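One-letter codes give the sequence; backbone shape is given numerically. An example follows:

. . .
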Amino acid sequence: MPMDERELGQRVKALTKCVAANEPPENAIKLLETLKKDASPTEEMLRATRAGVFVGKLRSNANKDIARAASELVSKWKKLVEQEKSSKLQKSKVGSGSPAPAPASAPASSPAPPPSSSGTSGAKYKGDVEKRKYETDNVNVKRTESSVRNSCIGLIYNGLAYRSTASESDVINRAIAVENAAFVKFKGETPDYKKKMRSLFTNLKNKSNRELGKSVLSGEISAEKFVVMTDDELKSEEQRKKELELERENMKMAQVPQEQKSISESLECGRCKKKQVSYTQAQTRAADEPMTTFCECMACGHRWKFS
């Protein structure tokens, strides 16, 4: 029986936890091979579960076997999506006797920037990728009647172009698509729209998150998906791993026996229900996150924590 969207999501979630927890490589490889064998997802399933995004990031994993297995899986899924699109196109032609009509234009209330005159990719960029900007690439970012929107197109262009060899036409087309998706999502030039544009630019320029820009440029992450990704979703696998290691280290430090503990008369033990609970607090995560409270029942010895 083919794997459905729910099961695919569960498998990908398990794979995410496995990699983030730095489990033995064999565990991740086994999960990847299972996905390769059992899953034949549609494009819609891949987008809904973000399976393509996460597995795509694993292609640059430090472990060569994980990277290889991830690359093979992505290759298989790409072929399936291409076959799906080809099949839909053929059905459309057979049903209408003519090529499928062009997609409808965006609503008048949120006009899309004018499309590129060419849909083909240009030659790879051969200049200094560290200093790429739309100004140095001689790219015109004035694609709308709004100076704010044009500035945002330029901002996203600079983020996507950073350390990329993609052609100017590919970068500007994706920058236009991203800006337009944000304009539609946040209903115009709102504070949320501007804040999101700055956030996306910052994440694209993060040197430890190079795969993000590649995924957006390749279409692996659609413009519509990109503009609604959370800060955590935008992080690279490396960033998540570092944060997990930091949290573990802080947890160890926080659990070192303390000389003095506070006794609370309001905290109740979940096991014996008595209100004889001692507690300590420690910062186990980022400085702006809530402190973690470590509790111990003085009556039965039950321990727990919360934040």
Remarks:
- The chain has twelve helices and four strands.
- Strands lie at 262-264, 277-282, 292-297, 303-306.
- The chain has three domains: 5-96, 129-238, 255-306.
